Structures are given as C-alpha cells and as structure tokens.
Here is the input.
Amino acid sequence: MELNANVLKNIRRVEPYVPGEQPQNKVIKLNTNENPYPPAPGVLKALKDLEYDRLRLYPDPAAEELTDALADYYHVKKDQVFVGVGSDDVLAMCFLTFFNSEKPILFPDITYSFYKVWAELYRIPYECPSLDEAFCIQKEDYYKENGGIIFPNPNAPTAVYENLEFVEDILEHNQDVIVIVDEAYIDFAGRSALELLDKYPNLIVVQTFSKARSMAGMRIGYAIGNPELIKYLNDAKYSFNSYTMNLPSLVCGIEAVRDKAYFKEVTDKIVETREWSKKELKELGFQFPDAKANFIFATHPEYDAEELFQALKKEGIYVRHWNSERIRQYLRITIGTKEEMNILFNFLQEKLKNS
Ligand code: PMP
Here is the structure.
C-alpha cells in the first residue's frame, strides 16, 4: 500500500522549516536570537508561587489576564489583542485567516523562512521581491496588486530596520489587503508600527516574548490590530487549533509585561553590547548591514563563512549559517553577554590571524 498517498499533499511537498540547533550541553549559544539574560524576577516568583493544584484545570482559553496586561501596556483596547503559543503560532494563524486571495501575497526574498513554509502548507500563492544590494526592502515592489503583505521589521536574518515612514508608505499603497508587520525584534530597533494602527485598520502587528522579554521557552506571542481582525483570529484559533496558552506561560507572561524597568534595563544592555560588537567585528574585517536587532548578519571578504561556522562550532560557539545561495557567505550572530561576545571575538581574532 502506498502510505504516502494518505498524507496531505501540502505536507508532502512542503520543505519544512529548519530550526537552529538547540544543543543541550553548555555552549556559547549565539544561533537562535535568544536573550542571554533571565526573564524579569517576577516571572520566577510567579512560577514558584503557582498553585500546584491549578495544573489540574484547563487554562483560561481567552487568556483574559494576559490580554488585559498587554492592552494596558500598549494603550490599546483588550479586543485589539490576540495571544498565542509563540509568535510562530500567531503568524501561522494570520496566514490561515487573512491570506485567502487568488492573488499572490508578497514577502521579501530574503526573510524569515517560515513564511514560505506556511504559504506552501496553506496553498497560498506568493511572490518574493528581492532585497536590494544593501539587503533593504524596496518598497515599490509592494505597490503592485497582491493578496496581502508580510515582512519582519527589523528583517531576519539581515537585522535591517525600516523606519516608520517606510512602513506607512507600504500601508498607504495597500489599503485593501491585510498588511502584517512581524516585529519580533522591534524592541532593539526603533519606533513600532503600532503607532499606525489608528490610521490603518488593515494593519496587524505581531510581537513576541521570546526575544526582548527573555521567554523563548515559555512560547508567548501576540498580535495587535483592529477588533474586527482580532475577532477573526480568535475564530480561527478556536476552529482550527486546539492550542491555548498553558497556565505557567499565562501567569509568567503577565509578570514580564508589568516589569517595565527590567525590560528597559535588559534591552538597553543588549543594544549597548550590539553597538560595541559592531565595532569589534569591523576591526576584524567583517562587513554587515547596519544591525538593529539582537543579532548581526556578517560576512568576511577573505574567509569562508561555512568554514568559520564549523570552526566556531568545534569550539562550542554556536552561530547560524545557511547554505542558501545569496547568503552563503554570511553568519548570523546573536548578541550574547559581553563576556560571551568577548570569547567569540578572541577566537575569531586567533582564527583569522592563523588562516
Ligand atoms: N518572526 C521572526 C522574524 C523570527 O525571527 C522569529 C523567531 N525565530 C519568530 C517570528 C518566532 O518567534 P517565537 O515563535 O519564538 O515568538
């Protein structure tokens, strides 16, 4: 019997997303853009104080308290917020809910590789306009007819941030389709598209607790948009997907949102380390587009990226490398602590000197 024939066609043809390695031993882990600092102290307390007996019960499917906390934080109404199991879950829900046209959706080539996976999986036609030479999105490419738009800002893996005027230009030319701005790294960058929500009811902004809030392990993401669109997301969630947030994530998420001072302290520290890291990398001869996320996308004109990647890995320093054409000579380096970055730079210095 051809077992294959029973498998959904879309799954058979999809090229699955390949996540960065998650080594379980102690390494210097600069490969999946996690935060090197722990979550806010209140998160640990909430985890410790969590009543064991509550684990018997299902969590609140509407995630009311976390939704309230986020609405408070961003000065929006509660019905403008949708939470999910990491922003990957939220983004997948958005693809499923909003990209439903015969016309192709648009997202950049190069960008977060999950977009292509979801488009293939849900059979959404797509086109991918190339980034320019400097790895910037060319906004004119997004002025043609389309079935929806998604792009990360800052983009991944390039770390290039486009300012609010740029985002607004794209919105201005695309008022009849849904435009999703994936702001996984916005807290390290600049102004958020959230400022444009009142003006553009077709805008959805997606953010995460995985990066600036140090909670990748908790899997919390959210979308903010106009209530009509958020309602559709909730309808889709309850129809297609049985996931609700788990109780520890709900309880801890609230604490993370409330601690504004800690959030600022950690993001400031990472931005400071990033700026210092840029100088160090430049001195070592690396080149990179200006990085505004918690990572730098760097190439060295004289050294093979794959070789450097392997040498670093052997040393227990994990960075990210892709074997795809245009970016084969690049490494994506997450900003760790200053100590971790120092170990990386010292190793690179030795390695480059002896090559
Ligand atoms: N968007 C972008 C651009 C990302 O790089 C990532 C993290 N890999 C995500 C979304 C998903 O993050 P999470 O599911 O952890 O919220």
About this structure: Residues 70 and 316 are 38 Å apart (CA to CA). The first helix runs from residue 9 to 13. The pocket of 4'-deoxy-4'-aminopyridoxal-5'-phosphate is lined by residues 86-88, 112, 152, 156, 182, 184, 208, 210, 216, 221 (CB under 6 Å).
